[in-house]
Structures are given as structure tokens and as C-alpha cells.
Amino acid sequence: MSTQVISETTVHKIAIVGGGAGGITVAAQLLNKNPALDIAIIEPSDKHYYQPAWTLVGGGQYKIEDTARNQKDCIPAGVTWIKDYAVDLDPDNNTVTTKGGQQIRYDYLVLAPGIQINWSLIKGLQESLGKDGVCSNYAYQYAPYTWETIEKFPGGTAIFTYPATPIKCGGAPQKIMYMADDAFRQKGVRDRSNIIYCNASAAIFPIKAYADALMKVVDRKNIDVKPQYNLKEIKADSKEAIFDVTTPEGVQEVAIKYDMIHVTPPMSAPDFIKQSKLASEAGWVNVNKETLQHNVYPNVFSLGDASSLPTSKTAAAIRGQAPVLVQNLLALMAADEIENQYDGYTCCPLITGYGKTMFAEFDYEKKPNPTFPLEPTKERYIMWLVKKYLLPWLYWNRMLKGKPFERGLLKGST
């Protein structure tokens, strides 16, 4: 007996796919400029998460429940919430189809669905995650186990990984490692512990000035950095991590025994983006890096993790992108010239230990672009306080409400 899916069609002036940081911020800013706009947000989740704090959860500095709020309290008043998954994009007919069979017709589309975590691309990871020392801060349900593992660590080999794909918050795999190092020292087990950073990239950070500063941190902490080590399998029974290692002689397979391993999984744009006409060859939403307008379909815009914008995938990036997108979308709707440009600004507060944070700001030129007249590669206690206390408050009370605030510390960085 077959079940027929009955399709319902609704029409909205602006459809936003994604109710995370990008989608909510854009909706709020649009309505602040024109409260009469007809906007729909397509978002399946009941909860909205402040994901930048999951690193602090894993480091024992934040409660996981404090990172979540009800989605209904975050979506701006006046926005229609379509509580469903987007599964198909048809830009030729200005239509989004949901998992439940609903069709949403739009005049303008904003894509902000975030990034897709591909746990299954590492063999054995899904079966082993959350137990026997295998942890990850990249999911709400797993971040608390990271701290449980660190807190109970008796010594041995602790591995921290970075995959061979773009990820959200590129500094996060190191942040938890540096806090673990401090925790091991405080517990008196560091002298019988070996910390290894297995990085699928060649450099520890994409901006040289910050990479140089971070190499001094790992040297000070006696951390073993292994470049071009890409995790491909977890063998939980034997507690082995299997890596593809790129060498001058080619790719070689290397196994390392672990007592704990923090895994940063491979990531990509969501499948429904990759399979659509709106995707670039690499699978991300194909937009102009300055205007955030789609390169083929002019009534489509994108920001945040799913976009093709060549900058770090952080909330700070979204904070810089949203005003540009909003102004350019409103200009298009008014048949005016699209003139506003995003310069690639982003920020990554690099936690280097408890009470120490390096505030890494940069743009498309890939050079330090500090807001304040301070040496940007220096670790500071004040930046730790900003990361731990100020930024979460700004996120919930300013950014998601579409309220303007200045660049840098007040730009909503992750």
C-alpha cells in the first residue's frame, strides 16, 4: 500500500533556508529596516544553539544547557516559521520543497543552512563516539563527554585531529587541546601524557602570523604536531587511530594508539545544496565573495558556513556578512545598484589555555586586521573574558536581534 504525499504551496516575498546564526540575523536586520516585509524561515529544529561555547563545554568552563534556547524565542516576531527540512531547491521556478512535501515559492531566496557534519566519512567513528575516550565538541550531545574524558584522564596518549575539509570555527580543534594540556597539568598527569595534534593541513593555522605564534604555544606546551595527518578510521577495539599521511613519497597509512582522541569530523555543505543548481563545483552556494549575490541566479543570496565565501566559517564572519547581504538584497528589491561589499573580515578567538586567548582577526588579504591598537598575536586574559562572557551575551542580545554594533570585539566573533 503506497502513501501519497500531498503537496501544499505557499508564497513568500523572501524565503530564508536556515534558522541558525545567519538566517536569524538576516531576518532580524531585514525587519528592522522594513517591518512590513513578508519573510519565511525554513528551519526544522526546536532549539537554537550558541555553538561557539561548545569548546568551553568540552573544557569544563560552560554548561551545555546554557548554549541552547527555544527556536521560537529566537525567530523574530512577524516571520513565518516553516518547521521542516529543505530538501530540494529549484531556482528556475523560485521554489523550495520541504521534506514534508510543502512547496515554498519565493521572489528572493537567502540560503543560510549551515554546514553538514559528515561523521560517517571516518570509519568506525559513529559507533565509538561518546565512549571509551572517543569524543568531539562538534555536537550538543557529545561535548559534555569531552570534559568527562579530560577530567578523568589518567595519563597516556591524547590525540586531537583536524580534517582535510573546511570546518566551522577552524581554531576549535586546537582550543580544546590547549585547555586539555592545562587540565592535565593541574591534575598532575601531564608528565605521563603525550599530546599529539594530527592536522590534515600543512600549517597549524591559515594566517602565517597567527600560525607562527601558535607554533610557539605548542613548543611551550610540548605538544607533538603532525602535519598532513588525515584521520580516516577509529579502531575502538584496539584503541587505534588510522591516518592517511601525505609524504613526498605519496600517501601512507599510519596507526597511532590512543587513550583519548578528540575528533573534528569532515564537513561539507548540506546535501540538498550540493545537489542543486545553486552549488559551486566544490558544493558550496556559488556567490560573489563581495556582494554575497549568487553568480547565476540574481535573486538568490547566501552567507555563513554553506556559502562559497573564501573566509573562515565563524559567527564573526556572519556578523560581517549579514549587513552587506541585507543592504544588497533591499537594493535589488528597489531596483537600485548593488554596491555594498564584504571584505572577508572574520575573527577567531584562539584559546591557548585557561585564562589565555589570542584574538585572531583577518580578512580576504589573510593578514592580521586587528580592531584595537594591541599586538594581535599576543595571548591575553581580557580576550579570555571576552570569549567566555561577552560574546555569548552579544550573540543572544544583539546579533540575533539584528541590532548594530561595532566591528571586532562587538562583531559577534566565535
Question: How are the SSEs ordered, and which strands pair?
Answer:
Blueprint lengths: L8 E9 L3 H13 L5 E4 L4 E3 L4 H5 L9 E3 H4 L5 E3 L3 E5 L4 E4 L4 E9 L4 E2 L7 H4 L5 E2 L7 H9 L4 E7 L9 H16 L5 E7 L8 H14 L2 E4 L1 E7 L4 E8 L2 E8 L2 E3 L4 E2 L2 H4 L25 E3 L12 H19 L12 E8 L2 E7 L18 H17 L17
How would you describe what is shown here?
There is one protein chain. It is built from 10 helices and 21 strands. The N terminus and C terminus are likely disordered. With 414 residues, it is of the alpha/beta class. It is globular. The chain folds into 2 domains: 185 residues, FAD/NAD(P)-binding domain (3-Layer(bba) Sandwich); 150 residues, 3-Layer(bba) Sandwich (FAD/NAD(P)-binding domain). The strands form 6 sheets. Strands 1, 2, 5, 6, 7, 8 and 19 form a 7-stranded mixed sheet that branches. Strands 10-17-11-12-13 form a 5-stranded parallel sheet, covered by helices on one side. Helix 7 links the parallel strand 12 and strand 13.
CATH architecture of the largest domain: 3-Layer(bba) Sandwich
Whole-number count of domains: 2
Main sheet: strands, sense, barrel: 7 strands, mixed
Look at the helices and sheets and give the structural class: alpha/beta
As a percent range, the share of helical residues equals 25-40%
Give the overall shape, derived from the CA principal axes. globular
CATH fold-level label of the largest domain: FAD/NAD(P)-binding domain
What is the CA–CA distance across the termini? 50 Å
- Going by CATH, the homologous superfamily of the largest domain would be FAD/NAD(P)-binding domain
Alpha plus pi helix count: 10
Compute the average pLDDT.
Answer: 94
Q: What is the rounded Rg?
A: 22 Å
Weakly predicted, low-confidence segments: 1-6, 408-414
CATH hierarchy class name of the largest domain: Alpha Beta
- Extended strand count: 21
| Beta-strand residue percentage | 25-35%
